[in-house]
Request: fold
Amino acid sequence: MRSFIFVFVALCSIGPAAACELNRPIVFAGMDWQSNAFHTAVAQFILEEGYDCETDVLPGTTIPLLQGVAQGDIDIVMEVWKDNVTEVWNRGLRRRQVVEVGTNFPDAVQGWYVPRYLVSGENAPAPGLIDVSDLPNYKALFSDPEEPDKGRFYNCIAGWNCEVINSAKLKAYDLEEHYTNFRPGTGAALAAAIASAYLRQQPILTYYWGPTWVLGKYDMVQLSEPAYDAEVFMALATDAQPTQATAYPVVEVAIGANRRFSESAPNVIAFLERYETDSALVSEALAYMEETGGRAGDAAERFLRTRSDVWSEWVDAARKAKIDAALSDSAS
Reply:
């Protein structure tokens, strides 16, 4: 009752928020991965409860949905991985069909990881393991049961581009004589291998990427590599015998919108321009979904309840009060 009175008083004291600018549902691109589902659910809740807008989600895969944004069938896409969709997204920008509204998170990562319990703490077995160049000294720690004289490196999933890049890195870093190149069949198999090692506090050396529930749930340390160099990195995909390697680039993930929509909904666009998270925050939300079996909507409401220090910067006081009231109603 006390929280209800507080919210009621707050609503009365700061005045009404303007109604939705559109008289139709705002359509989001329902990309088929969890972090996009989480961000879409957060934005939907804020627009529905804070802006009185109706929303909808059109599910699908990346390229058709981005084309839908360009054509105006879809209004908003919460994750544009610009390094992965260069051609279709840049074409939309050149034709002035789409706009980049802001940066959702600036630090999507890929790299080689080990559990923190291997490198930190009083009894850590590998306190000197910091860089990929240190790996030959620790191959016995990561011994491959099928080839015990070598350590086992858990590569990316066979068929993915990262598997090609990591295989080239093993050559360039002169690690092939020290480590086997173990390729899991699926993403689930790789995650299960990491979970199993972590549960038993066993060594594991693995490629991984974020934001993901794995990096949100398990405390993993990324090994350092030579600083990212675009030319060297591109050669890793084509050079059969590379002698140089480099870290993966840190990727900026943008929020995109159809241009005509952006011109017709300036208040919504102003909210999206202020929307900003980071990779660690998203990984934490994904770990919550994994642990609880919850939906993206559950993770979104949990985020809105616990991290008002983040999202309250995205909206004005009147809309924040309405969102707080909706969260209180949802919890009762």
Q: What stands out?
A: Residues 1-13 have pLDDT under 50 and may be disordered. The two ends are 10 Å apart (CA to CA). The CA atoms of residues 192 and 214 lie 10 Å apart. The first strand starts at residue 26 and ends at 31.
